[in-house]
Amino acid sequence: MIIYFSATGNNQHIANTIAQHLNDKKESIIQLDKKEQYTITLEDNEKLGIIIPTYFLGLPSYVEEYLSKTRIIPAKNNYIYIISTYGTSPGYSTGYIKEYLEEQNIPTHAQYTIKMPDTWTPFFDVSNKQKNNTINDNAQRQTEQIITMIKERKQGKYTKNTLPKIIANIAQLMYDRQRKTSNLKVDNTCNKCGTCAENCPINAITVNDDKIEWVTERCVMCLRCLHKCPQFAIQYKNMTRKHGQYINPHIKTLD
């Protein structure tokens, strides 16, 4: 089984690719959460993959909340692996997942990282499609290498550019501030189509006749709403317009 969180399709594509090659099943954490499925029961010899993006050198708040409610029931000869995608550094993201598993006495057999386009557009520019394609082509090769290692049940830490937990903890404090929905704005090109509300993983957006509103003080800040908006009407402060929008080119419908 593979569980994953994906805001703009990067991790969804990786999960799709691995599931296809391993003949495995996959589930989006968003869909599991909607079904209130917080128990994962493994069979003998089954693999469990957890695929997550790096947010501020750590985990998306949504992933933390889901894992805190989830119980994993192991069986004989399981193989548990973690994959973290990142733009600049995976920080301590795989380490946090490992700690969640250790709390349930679940071993982590392997940790992997894959570099992909960084979709945090308040800082990073995704408007260059050729650059994005190059990064994604490299990510595809990394994914294929990891698939071979998973098939062989390799054990160890196969990560790059990680950082100590203490640095990630500091960055996570910054993330908490950046998650304030007051940072998100809608300009006058919005046509109230509702795409943002339909795609928000935590139902933080409502669309009324006269305006769009964020109904929570903080959100995951995955920016799925910004990247999916057909009018590109949603912005993070005044920092994102020139940096463009991004959805993984291999994904037609986000899970």
Query: How do the SSEs run, as a string of H and E?
Result: EHEHEEHEEHEHEHEHEEHE
Strands side by side in the biggest sheet: 2-1-4-6-7-8
Number of helices: 8
Q: Termini separation (Å)?
A: 16 Å
Averaged pLDDT: 96
Report strand %: 15-25%
Query: pLDDT below 50 for ≥5 consecutive residues: which ranges?
Result: none
Helicity, as a percent range: 25-40%
Number of strands: 12
Which structural class best describes the helix and strand composition?
A: alpha/beta
Could you describe the largest sheet, including whether it forms a barrel?
6 strands, parallel
What is the overall silhouette? globular
C-alpha-based Rg, rounded: 18 Å
